[in-house]
Amino acid sequence: MDFTGSHILSIDQFERPDIEHIFRVADAMEPYASRRRVTRVLEGAILGNMFFEPSTRTRVSFGCAFNLLGGEVRETTGFESSAIAKGESLYDTARVLSGYSDVICMRHPQNGSVAEFAEASRVPVINGGDGSNEHPSQALLDLYTIRKEMAAKGKGLNGLRIAMIGDLKHGRTVHSLCRLLALFEGLQVTLVSPAELAMPEYLVELMRRAGHQVVVTDELTASISKVDIAYSTRIQEERFASKQEADLYRGRFRLNQQIYTQFCEPNTVIMHPLPRDSRAEANELDNDLNSNPNLAIFRQTDNGVLVRMALFAMVLDVVEQVDKHAQAVRWYSNR
Amino acid sequence: MDFTGSHILSIDQFERPDIEHIFRVADAMEPYASRRRVTRVLEGAILGNMFFEPSTRTRVSFGCAFNLLGGEVRETTGFESSAIAKGESLYDTARVLSGYSDVICMRHPQNGSVAEFAEASRVPVINGGDGSNEHPSQALLDLYTIRKEMAAKGKGLNGLRIAMIGDLKHGRTVHSLCRLLALFEGLQVTLVSPAELAMPEYLVELMRRAGHQVVVTDELTASISKVDIAYSTRIQEERFASKQEADLYRGRFRLNQQIYTQFCEPNTVIMHPLPRDSRAEANELDNDLNSNPNLAIFRQTDNGVLVRMALFAMVLDVVEQVDKHAQAVRWYSNR
Amino acid sequence: MDFTGSHILSIDQFERPDIEHIFRVADAMEPYASRRRVTRVLEGAILGNMFFEPSTRTRVSFGCAFNLLGGEVRETTGFESSAIAKGESLYDTARVLSGYSDVICMRHPQNGSVAEFAEASRVPVINGGDGSNEHPSQALLDLYTIRKEMAAKGKGLNGLRIAMIGDLKHGRTVHSLCRLLALFEGLQVTLVSPAELAMPEYLVELMRRAGHQVVVTDELTASISKVDIAYSTRIQEERFASKQEADLYRGRFRLNQQIYTQFCEPNTVIMHPLPRDSRAEANELDNDLNSNPNLAIFRQTDNGVLVRMALFAMVLDVVEQVDKHAQAVRWYSNR
Question: What is its EC class (chains A, B, C) (predicted)?
């Protein structure tokens, strides 16, 4: 696809070469994200960082990615506006706000809202999450992390063995990851959940049609014993009828250092879309894993900045110019 | 007036040459707002964008205007602060915040509060709306849009025929627009509203004293049949005693494409201060007008950026220097 | 201490030479804060301005200080995030957010939270206030102001006579100030409060051990008659069991121009950590003092910008380079 001027709304837009293109650009952003270099390529450009639902992590990550390319960020951090209460349509909001910025990142609680907004927008719109529907940059940073972690171990995505663990019924991130993985071939995918929280059947089918070997199970320790990646997820309490119902499942499939040592291969990489639930009753990834070098959960969020920089640079067509407007950092940086 | 270092609190500050001065500077901002050029003239300057009442649209518009001149924006987006709850006076707030920035834009729910704040401030203050009192940049962008739309049709403001429609009793924007129009001569002004929501008599008198021909009516279709501008407004529900009372008037004076085609002259320009109420029960400007090239409502908000850039540049005395610190944009821009 | 890469969590980190070092750097920031010059030394750097409790004044002051050094600010203005509601630990929040910025300023309602956050952070963290515990930049700006006010009168800190007045039991700022003053020698400190709101005994002891002469009293007028500095404070209503209990003390120890003229030496400097409570029932510093040139309360907040610029420049190790990347301001500035 041609990224220049395009909206980024869904991972379904991408074919495998597009994914690989994004990942190459993300790799090229590394000197800037790690503060070895500074670029001003987007000097004067404005990101409209429109979060109509609060999300500190994602909002700051997008804003930071834009700043790292030299641009400015104007933002909103929740339903502060009374315009919608006064009956304003998404069409009007989009037309107005797109007059203020060069690109918009938008999060909104309602499924499909970002696509509707994008249709009226006069500038490219990146979906920062629309309800339970899509959050494409999260899916991309997950796959980017998998690729990078595998590469660090001298492997590619071919033959990848991955287990997804937890609430696979409600987890938007694992759904998106399955759809991205279906662009590749020959993977071994193990889906570990209580039967009631199983991965939707259509996604299992999608991966099988792509030629992957898919195992569905509710047995944790056997499942994580022969995988490259153990991708843990949180119980999505907010999607259950009640806290009580969610509590039935909370704390199943806990992973900690003792289980890791006993059951996993030495280099198994642990991932999680965050936030992880660190309360005693849930604790799906114990804090005693924090010093485990294979815990990749914070490399995931770091990679998110690279992927978001790549999307901005591609949509605004400045990939080739990033290095031209660069210099070394002047300040202390220990990263 | 000398704009350098001045507060912009009310349209009553301006005489006709001041308005024309602002509009000339706004015209000169166009290459920057449309992203053909980028200027860094305000590099290092800080706007204190102090919104003590939420307003995404206006807040982002001011912030964006300042960014487009190369400055930085620090802001507040509502009554987050506990300082006022702790008994802090507006005087103290102003003295403190004015130590942090080079210019302040302030919105506040209380009439007169911005002028009180400005008196204590050590930097210029621009009124971003104080209750039902003033919102001078909105009035300026309305008149600027009228001038620009007329110019595009080869006309000037002389002999302008304008209808204002809807809740003319409570609408702050139409009140301000009347006061601005009173600086000009020989206009034909038609005021269309239910009798209960009529334009205040002192404003009708003001326009008549200026030599305008003013017609007061509650008849829509006849009124819009011979005008250059049809300026529609929303029922200001929040100013009524109850929603029920507001509902009595909602949905009167609807304008849609069918009515436009049947009653308006071919080039009648449609304006609205936004937000327009798109709910079925109100719908003062139907969405079927969205593809009508004479619907100028989004050109109004775009023009708002130009007018706000002009105010910042004039108050901070950098008008002459904007172009000196400019370059072409580097990134994709489809505007 | 070596400031490069260090967290700034508590004034207990500092010895006297460190304080003097900070103050020398703050002095050097003056041309930038007063807008005679602009520096871009931190171009490309990002401050994560993480306010998990609202505070317009402190948040904007830190953000402004970072902007004045040329850096960008990403921020959060309250507990918007649902991540913590979803059970995320401070460790995870810190690891994630520290991947987005070069330095973090954090305010949080919970005592000790900022230190816990800093332990997990990969970048330097500056404590912007953690509950009733610490707010080191406030303490520094208070002492910096005292030093500067004394210098303007040709005096040093030696032999300083200071009265602290009001709710000395709950006031975090006066507690911190006492601890800083304990690094110096030979001061005369008068502590004026109702017996029930007296300065904690351990702080009185600390100052006595430092060799200061400390008087504890509930008598205002005698106490302020022979001091260089009268440091007034607000009744910390939120720390009382009830508003009624706080009301018992509100309005005691009021200072106004008439009392000042009658009892104070001509050049006594009046300070207050702000916000001051200007409601009639409290009014600890009357507005009739606003034109008194010895009212230093707004010089305090102005000095806060200098001190915060100094902390950023020292922690990021750019003190020597600030001037190298500087130029004169281009815009109107009346300060």
Answer: transferase
